[in-house]
Design goal:
Number of helices: 19
Helix content: over 70%
Strand order of the largest sheet: 1-2
Order of helices and strands: HHHHHHHEEHHHHHHHHHHHH
Radius of gyration: 27 Å
Distance between the termini: 9 Å
């Protein structure tokens, strides 16, 4: 079975539509007794009018041919663009995020003050501390589940068939993930909640903004989302990328609608609680309604004699990803809290809104890579390295094109707002720093893609570059921020991304790819 089939590819060929013309569809007509026909329009080759039923069938055939040709054309376009079912659903989710993100930016600028906007976006920066409790396990779960999935088949009713050892190991992975995240979620709430109270309470403008209640609600619902996160990663590892993306789409729509209603109703920062609450509750309801039966069947295969050894199998891989993820917090999310502390909530609001725009662009573009992560794991398990390279580099080119186009549109819009001296322009960064930040986002996109590729081998070679970049970024952001403000922070960040991220990261990618891939023509598959 091909990987595309396992992932539910929708690119099914249309039988009988290659190069057909109208004459191809109309088969030779049998001889007809023209004297028995009633009067309608005359066909070719008969001077007596034909019957209405014959004319109707001729029109239906023409219409079916037209539809079939267009379906074949669209199928070829989907193959060229790399849009399979998983990508399509993920693009719906990411597309809604971009559309809703743009509308949310307008709603925030319209219904929140500049100071409230700074608190709103800095909330997310402090919530990023949850990576210190998750420790990168969700990415490990996806990769380990996809490797076991290569030996199994999943029926329409949720039954898992195949290698008995693989089923037991899959159950062990699920149990370990749920236990870990239950503890991590509780610890996150217990630590992050008071840290946020201390951080925001230090601001002189804190007394003029009602932030304590919203902050507490956001942290509690974020704890629930963290607890559910491993189940989504596990399902993605099983190849259910399109189903998980559909759930994400539903979650994003519900959350955005509630946020907008709350902002319009004048809830202020309390509207953010509605957003975070919806993201957690929709996922919980979807898991209970759609995936409960299958997950219970997988857990039922658990055998303590055949388990995944966390210490010897997962931890050697996880601790590298964990440090890489912890470093990632100091590479991107920490920037807004630093700006908040040095420049105040108004400038932090500009920075946060600009980062939100570029984050939407990045998440949209990375969909071409993220949705292929389970397929990467399967191809690595089969040692089909040529198929892996073919799929990855095609997806990378497609995703980079999307990132460049969307970032260019965003930058042009900001230039226009500044050109007409719009009051909306003061809610985001000026064109020059925004353009530099967009360049850094594009560089990071390449590095993130290379990391996903290499992690499909259940290894983490980006550990020390991430540590170097994170430590350097925090130092530069604080030093340059105090001396040159937000522009200095952005310039330092972009230079570090180019030198350490793209330079050192790509060298590691090329070196490890050559080292790990031992080509064996007898073990190669081409059904990707």
């Amino acid at each position: 079975m091909s990987v595309n089939a396992e992932l539910g590819d929708i690119r099914d060929p249309m039988p009988g539509t290659d190069g057909e013309s109208l004459e191809d569809v109309s088969s030779p007509r049998p001889e007809t007794d023209c004297s028995q026909m009633s009067s309608v329009a005359p066909p070719d080759g008969c001077d007596i009018p034909v019957t209405e039923p014959y004319a109707d069938s001729f029109a239906e055939a023409a219409e079916e041919t037209f539809i079939a040709r267009n379906r074949a054309y669209l199928s070829r376009m989907r193959r060229f663009a790399g849009v399979d079912r998983a990508v399509a659903y993920t693009l719906m989710w990411r597309g809604w995020q971009i559309l809703a993100g743009g509308l949310t930016i307008l709603f925030i600028a319209r219904f929140l003050t500049a100071t409230q906007q700074g608190f709103y976006y800095t909330f997310n920066g402090i919530l990023g501390l949850q990576v210190f409790f998750e420790l990168g396990l969700s990415g490990v779960i996806l990769q380990f589940a996809s490797h076991e999935r290569a030996k199994l088949t999943i029926g329409q009713k949720g039954q898992v068939d195949g290698d008995a050892i693989a089923r037991c190991r899959l159950a062990s992975i699920l149990r370990t993930a749920v236990g870990w995240y239950a503890v991590a979620a509780c610890a996150m709430v217990a630590v992050v909640l008071p840290v946020g109270v201390w951080f925001f309470g230090r601001q002189a403008s804190a007394d003029s903004v009602s932030w304590l209640g919203p902050w507490a609600g956001i942290v509690l619902f974020s704890g629930l989302s963290l607890f559910l996160a491993p189940l989504l990663s596990f399902l993605q590892g099983l190849g259910m990328v399109s189903q998980v993306a559909a759930a994400h789409t539903l979650k994003a729509i519900a959350a955005s609608l509630l946020l907008w209603v709350g902002l319009i109703a004048g809830f202020g920062l309390h509207a953010s609680v509605l957003y975070v609450g919806a993201t957690a509750l929709v996922v919980l309801i979807w898991l209970l309604a759609k995936q409960r039966v299958m997950l219970r069947k997988i857990v039922a295969d658990y055998d303590p004699r055949t388990t995944v050894n966390w210490r010897h199998e997962i931890w050697p891989f996880q601790w590298r990803i964990a440090i890489s993820w912890l470093s990632g917090y100091f590479i991107w999310p920490v920037i807004n809290p630093i700006v908040f502390g040095l420049e105040g909530p108004v400038v932090a609001g500009q920075m946060g809104m600009s980062m939100a725009v570029l984050a939407g662009v990045g998440t949209m573009a990375i969909s071409w890579i993220n949705t292929k992560a389970p397929a990467f794991g399967v191809l690595v398990a089969r040692k089909d390295y040529r198929g892996l390279d073919r799929l990855f580099f095609r997806s990378l080119a497609q995703s980079l094109t999307v990132a460049a186009v969307l970032a260019g549109v965003a930058w042009a819009a900001i230039c226009y707002l500044n050109h007409i001296d719009s009051s909306w322009a003061v809610r985001v960064l000026p064109p020059l720093p925004f353009g530099i930040l967009a360049l850094a986002m594009g560089v990071n996109h390449v590095v993130f893609s290379e990391a996903i590729y290499l992690r499909a081998h259940k290894r983490e070679p980006f550990l020390w570059p991430s540590v170097m970049l994170g430590a350097s970024n925090v130092t530069c952001a604080y030093v340059l921020g105090k001396a040159y403000g937000v522009f200095g922070i952005i310039c330092g960040y972009a230079i570090l991304c180019l030198v350490i991220g793209l330079g050192l990261g790509t060298w590691i990618f090329v070196t490890k790819r050559r080292e790990w891939h031992q080509y064996d023509p007898d073990n190669l598959h081409s059904d990707v």
